[in-house]
Amino acid sequence: MSERKREGEGLEQAAGLDMGTRLEERDERAGADAETVDEAIFSLSGVGVTYSGAQAVEDVSFGLATNEITAFIGPSGCGKSTLIRCLNRMNDLIPGAEVEGEVLYHDQDLYDPKIDPVQVRKRIGMVFQKPNPFPKSIYDNIAFGPKVLGVKDDMDETVERALRRASLWDEVKDRLKSNAFGMSGGQQQRLCIARALAVSPDVILMDEPCSALDPISTGRIEDLMLELKQSYSIVIVTHNMHQAARVSDRTAFFTVDLRAGESQRVGKLVEFAPTEQIFTSPRDRRTEEYVTGKFG
Ligand SMILES: Nc1ncnc2c1ncn2[C@@H]1O[C@H](COP(=O)(O)OP(=O)(O)OP(=O)(O)O)[C@@H](O)[C@H]1O
Ligand SMILES: [Mg+2]
Fold first, then answer.
1. What pLDDT sits at residue 213?
2. Does residue 262 lie in a domain region?
3. Residue 37: inside a domain
4. Could you tell me if residue 196 is inside a domain?
5. Smallest-distance ligand from the CA of 76
6. What letters, b where the CB count within 10 A reaches 16 and e where it falls short, cover 18-48?
7. Domain count, the chain
8. Among 18, 42, 48, 49, which is disulfide-ready with 64 (CB 3.0 to 4.6 Å)?
9. Does 296 fall in a domain?
10. 207 C-alpha to ligand 2 centroid (Å)
11. Which residue's CA is the nearest one to ligand 1's atom 5?
12. Residue 89: which of 66, 61, 122, 62 has the closest Cα?
């Protein structure tokens, strides 16, 4: 068996932890502080990122819960995109970026040298701010990932299932062979979500997925997220407070610490709590100022 296959299986096994183990863990965690969650899909401990030695984010510790939507909010430059990229090893692709601390995914160290980053990105999909379909047909956009991964299922079924899950099937079923660039922005973003779903991920990371969309397309993506969280765990970065309040179960608020006479800007986690608490009774004054629009 090839090394790559074995590593991938380690991750598959980790993703398939049996329910008995999780329930025992839940008992042990009862009474833990607000920054841990039951059934964590990710647990971050002392996570930081440097770019060519300059600290961009520092000392982030919290857990993200399975089948929930977790929102990352905070002012520009506080490290939301940097941190979300730690969750599927996308920072590996950025020259000069180094990740510190520990990121556990289903209790497995995501940065263990035995883990294959390609398998990680298969299980943990990502959707970006600007819809980025490939210059191919709608069908080929969806079929691309499963083909590369050598998935043996019937491709027509795989494509249809992914498009249905992304609530796009009815709009595109008669034009599957047309170029994806002929779709509206909102449709292109749902196509990118369908493309992420086609490889059967476990987690979907979304970095400002609606910032280029009109309110109607935004509403459709939000509805879709609420539907998808039954089967997937979702992380969303957003500048839209209403969106964070509408869709997320828990929210992490980050800020920028100015150091060395303001020449150094370091992102920090200020508060992580159920979304309702963040928006109605935050513990930290900085969170309150940000969510009420007094700052940021
Ligand atoms: N590829 C990179 N190379 C060097 N520095 C980077 C890189 N990406 C981000 N940074 C720096 O890391 C810090 C955090 O940036 P990041 O993009 O994660 O913030 P953000 O919270 O997503 O901001 P925004 O809300 O504007 O998207 C910033 O100081 C930024 O300049
Ligand atoms: Mg960003």
1. 87
2. yes
3. yes
4. yes
5. 1
6. eeeeeeeeeeeeeeeeebebbbbbbbbeebb
7. 1
8. 42
9. no
10. 7
11. 51
12. 122
Contact 94, 274 (CB under 8 A): no
Query: Residue 74 is part of which domain span?
Result: 3-291
User: Which residue's alpha carbon is at the smallest distance from atom 27 of ligand 1?
Assistant: 76
For the record, the structure tokens of 161 come out as 């299932």
Q: At which residue do the structure tokens 């990371």 appear?
A: 205
Relative to the CA of 83, which ligand 1 atom is closest? 18
Query: Ligand 1 — pocket residues by CB below 6 A?
Result: 51, 56, 76-82, 94, 265, 267
Measure 194 CA to ligand 1 centroid, in angstroms. 27
Which tokens hold the place of 151? Answer: 């998935």
Question: Do residues 217 and 185 make contact, with C-beta atoms less than 8 angstroms apart?
Answer: yes
At residue 60, the 3 state secondary structure works out as strand
Tell me the C-alpha distance between 86 and 89, whole Å.
5
Per-residue tens of pLDDT for the chain, all 296 residues:
444 444 444 444 444 333 333 333 433 433 344 477 888 999 999 999 999 999 999 999 999 999 999 999 999 999 999 999 999 999 999 999 999 999 999 999 999 999 999 889 889 999 999 999 999 999 999 999 999 888 888 999 999 999 999 989 999 999 999 999 999 999 999 999 999 999 989 999 999 999 988 899 899 999 999 999 999 999 999 999 999 999 999 999 999 998 877 778 999 999 999 999 999 999 999 999 999 988 75
Find where tokens 């982030």 sit: 60
